[in-house]
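User: For documentation purposes, I need each entry recorded in a consistent format: the amino acid sequence on its own, followed directly by the corresponding structure tokens. There are two entries in this batch. Please keep commentary to a minimum and don't merge the entries.

Assistant: Recorded as requested. Entry 1:
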Amino acid sequence: MPPKVNKTTASLTSSTVEANDQRNNMLEDIRRIVREVIQDEVSSLKTDIQLAIAPVRAELDECKTQLADHEEGLNTLAARIDSLEARCTQLAKDNAKLQLKMDDLENRVRRCNLLIVGIPEGVEQGNPIPSSLTCFTNCLPDRGGLEKAPVLDRAHCVPASRPKYGERPCSLLCKVHIFQVKEEILKLSRQKGKLVLGGTQIFIFPDYSADLDKRRAAYHEVKAVLRKADVRYGLLYPARLRITFGSETRIFDSPQSAMEYYTTKIKHTAENM
């Protein structure tokens, strides 16, 4: 190859290498610039984000603190509620016991009392005791265990407005001096059944508290079915029902248990006979 051609080829090769180096250097510079710009932007974004989320973090920290306080408060309230419920349960039991005792004491105070319903208006004439004695001496049959007219400690009309014409006459409440005499009067009144004074039918009842009256009245339904089935029964004080069926005698403290006994035992036996 001629020397001139070799020189030209070498010159071209050198130019190509130099151009490649310049291009590579330029690309490296561009990469460096882009990298620096991106790093600056990322750093700026980090700063902006940190500044933006700083209040959020503060609020989250405050929420965590409040949540912990609320959790502690709820635990305290739950413990207090448990204690309060236990106390309320105990107070309810104590109150029920006190109510039973109070009702028992009230009925013990009334144990010698008799309630006479249907006394004609004006019979007492300002003094109910003679009219009460008249009921016992004139209305009752052979006085049996009553050797003489019963002794009354006091008697008075049941507080109520004066009855109008045609309405049920007033009632007298009298206290018999001796409890056994009061029981004998009730027994004699049940034996006679219908008591009449001055052409008016009267009734003699024991004097019970309103609560005890309600408890005893709850047995009316089961007493009716027992009478219909011709089964012996008796209502015991304060509010218990004694049932005698065949050779078996049972005492029940609630109308529900007495009715269940009638349904499962008495009625079932009668149906299978």
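Entry 2:
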Amino acid sequence: MALLVVLLFGGLFSLADAVQSHDFTQRGLLAAERSTSDARLGAMRASAAVRESLVDTAAFDAALADAAAAESSDGSGVRTWDLSVGELRAFAQAGFSDRVAAIESDDALDDSTRARQTQSAAQQFARALSVIEEVRPRGLFEAFAAEERRAAPQFVTALIDFDLPALLAVSARALIQAPMRLWEVAPWMTSLVLLIVFATGSFAATALCRMSALDLARGQKLSAREGAWYAADRATRCLLLPIAPIGLVLVLLFVPALYGVLLALPMGDIIAAVLFPIALVFALLASVVLIVSFSAMLLYPAAAAVEDADLPDAITRSASFVIARPLLWLGVLSTSLVTLAMGGILVSLLLQVTEVLTLIAASVVMGDSIVENAASSRLGSVETLSSTQGMSAQILSGWLALFRTLLSAYLFSLLAELSTRAYFYMRARVDGEEVATVAQSA
């Protein structure tokens, strides 16, 4: 189930980026969006790098000319990228294949010279791919995901060093600045995507929390299918768990919105001034609800799974734990986030070791070239190989991509496990209930 959620999120982010025209750089979401002139310079750099890797540039120049002619005929103006990123990569791949074929067909070369020239061609091809990767446009949600990935190791490092200013800065950047920037750039798309993410994530988390709760309390093992059916029977409450508090905040903000309407009416400023405390009180209530509900969001799916609670009960129980013991909850929440971040770092390390071991194991069968030609030790760059070796390398790259997705799914499962344990702990400290008390499903 966690795997399906990760695949859904990845597809949703890609679709959202595909229907928008944002261009961010490797610096991430918080950096300024790239200007048209900077993007054009990047495209020219990529084209120049591809041209240097080609043996014959005639076809490449013809493709550029055709793109320019198409722009002139439809009157759409100058595009930032004359050729797409995929087309540039294809030309670079074709250029490398031509170079390798020319080297292999040159009978005047000895084996050492042929190997040296082949390696040089592979390095030139890798440089072209590196430039394309560096300057390619990045969508809004891709930049947001990169920003969050960078924050995880920085958070753990600051925590280990007991650097409170750095810890607060990283937390603010990941939890406040990056989401606010996302909203600032595309408010409607961000709202739609986040609603889908919260709803589907809550549904899957409730199923996983039910499985975890029964395992922790009774040693009872639920299958993924049984967990999914449990959440499906309560689909409405599972989907609305993170959304209902947002709706309540919007309802409370309706009064301050009316205050703004009064200011636009004749003599309305006087009435608005008299009624200002009412608007202030409702805005204060909205702020409290927003902060408490956001802080307790980790407990929502666990409350629904452990207590078999309906929507209002799950939300109010979770919020009551936060309000009753705020300092204790901050400690539990911090511990959970650190555990999740450490899990992400360990998973990333495991992935890197797996890639290296895969390359070494593959080199036994495919030859040392698979290791030598893997730019920056990334298996995704072994497309510099040719024939069956290149096909084998691509298959290995696909398996590693699937493995990376499985590891992301593990992190989502870990989050559900932490949610369940946090709920049990807070319930024991606040209500004094034992862990073994888990509500029977109706």
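Summary note for entry 2:
Residues 387-430 form the longest helix (44 residues).
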